[in-house]
Design a protein that fits this description.
Glyco_hydro_29, Glyco_hydro_29_N, alpha/beta, 7-stranded parallel sheet, 12 helices, glycosidase
């Protein structure tokens, strides 16, 4: 059992109680366990520059690989007819969800292979599901006993292997997703029955696991989920974050999201997610993230998914551009099957994303939202900007190659120093200014085999005055 309790004003005293130790920590100039203090923490700079991360949902739910990662709940929690029928048709009557655990074999899982694939996608960070709502931990947790990847299934520390490969073979930031609740854990159900007046599950399971993964794996993203049934007071979220920001080994670099209680999402925390696949299409005042899936319908692997269920690369890129244009990052999910070899459809999308970013990354990494997010006169044009000592450059992301020899943009106000180029194309482009602002760019004829990329082209406009 482990818990943190922090009190103080400017000077915070944290009491850590664990099965192995009892220590008193005095921290000067600490973040306090209240949202005013916690929300004052600056977002680590690496995150806003990164723009793209890879999400990975992998667990016991990858064994049935039917319906979604919510398979257990859809079977025994709030049964859905298709899942119930699937079990009746394919498994004996006495089969339990725990029996899937030993079939989570991971025989083809190679952390280095995953890490290299994620690096080639052009992503800058990865967030791996350490534990989903089923409660199975992908590391040998002291608080999950026989329901973890070392004791049952692969007999491996999956989190540790992926962490080591990511940090030794790539420059990706390594992060971990963690579900605060578990659908069927007896302690959680007892706390829920009490109206969340008791906190046995939090004290004996949620918080000890969070401290354990931070202290063991030092993630640079702690992505919380499963918080929505109870408020932050029940989860002791503020106390955990005060420790994370003040006294953990990743206190200066770690990024967290906003899922820390039923009353918190989209209001407090680090990066706002607000909901799955959140993509508002307008500029947001607070840094946010679009956590989304290549499979339109599931975060976990589905054996019966159809080709049409997966987003095309054009769809992915358009989602990505709209996200970054409006100030967000995109966290793009892949769901490996139980054996751990990422299937070709995901590999292809990751490779395609990487090839596009090799050409167009200048308009992505380190960019910021421009004054306007999308063009008013030409449909399917979205903007980012970069500013340095020479002025402001605007990047126009064009979803469809112009069907005439002119691309009309009405929003950029050019100057006498303005130059226009197509990222990946070797020569500058000519243009005509418009009144009172805007420009018409002359589109060169480019043979198909010499196009800088296959999808979604980026025009750079320098020395913009607005």
């Amino acid at each position: 059992m482990s818990a943190f309790n922090c009190i103080g004003n400017g000077v915070v005293f944290c009491l850590l109680v664990s099965a192995a130790s009892l220590s008193l920590l005095q921290v000067v100039n600490a973040y306090e366990p209240n949202w005013k203090s916690l929300d004052s923490r600056p977002l680590p700079g690496w995150y806003d520059d990164a723009k793209l991360g890879i999400f990975v949902h992998w667990g016991v739910f990858s064994v049935p690989s039917y319906s979604s990662e919510w398979f257990w709940w859809n079977w025994k929690g709030l049964p859905t007819p298709a899942v119930v029928e699937f079990m009746l048709q394919n498994y004996p009557p006495d089969f339990t969800y725990a029996d899937f655990g030993k079939q989570f074999t991971a025989e083809f899982f190679e952390g280095g292979e995953w890490a290299n694939m994620f690096q080639k996608s052009g992503a800058k960070y990865v967030v791996f599901v350490s534990k989903h709502h089923e409660g199975y931990t992908n590391w040998p947790s002291k608080y999950s006993f026989n329901w973890n990847s070392m004791a049952l299934g692969p007999n491996r520390d999956i989190v540790g292997e992926l962490m080591n490969a990511t940090r030794s073979k790539t420059d990706l930031k390594f992060g971990l997703y963690h579900s605060m609740f578990e659908w069927f854990h007896p302690l959680y159900l007892a706390d829920k029955k009490s109206g969340f007046k008791s906190q046995d599950f939090v004290n004996q399971k949620t918080l000890p696991e969070l401290y354990e993964i931070v202290e063991t794996y030092k993630p640079e993203v702690v992505w919380s989920d499963g918080d929505w049934e109870a408020p932050d007071v029940y989860w002791k979220s503020k106390e955990f974050l005060a420790w994370l920001y003040t006294n953990s080994s990743v206190k200066d670099t770690v990024v967290v999201n906003d899922r820390w209680g039923s009353n918190i999402s989209c209001h407090h925390g680090g990066v706002y997610t607000c909901g799955d696949r959140f993509n508002p299409g307008v500029l947001q005042k607070h840094k946010w993230e679009n956590a989304m899936t290549i499979d339109k319908y599931s975060w976990g692997f589905r054996r019966n998914a159809r080709l049409s269920d997966y987003l095309t690369i054009e769809g992915l890129l358009q989602t990505f551009v709209i996200t970054i244009s409006c100030g967000g990052n995109m966290l793009m999910n892949v769901g490996p099957p139980k054996h751990g070899h990422i299937v070709p459809i995901y590999e292809e999308r990751l490779s395609q994303m990487g090839s596009w970013l090799k050409v167009n990354g200048e308009g992505v990494y380190g960019s910021r939202p421009w004054t306007s997010q999308n063009e008013t006169v030409t449909e399917g044009v979205w903007y980012t900007k970069k500013t340095d000592a020479s002025g402001t450059s605007v990047y126009a992301f064009v979803f469809n190659w112009p069907d005439t020899d002119t691309l009309r943009l009405d929003l950029p106000q050019v100057s006498s120093a303005t130059k226009v180029s197509l990222l990946g194309y070797p020569t500058l482009l000519s243009y005509q200014t418009r009144s009172p602002k805007g420009l018409s760019i002359s589109i060169p004829f480019i043979s198909i085999n010499k196009m800088p990329c296959q999808w979604l082209w980026v025009f750079k406009i320098t020395a913009v005055e607005n």
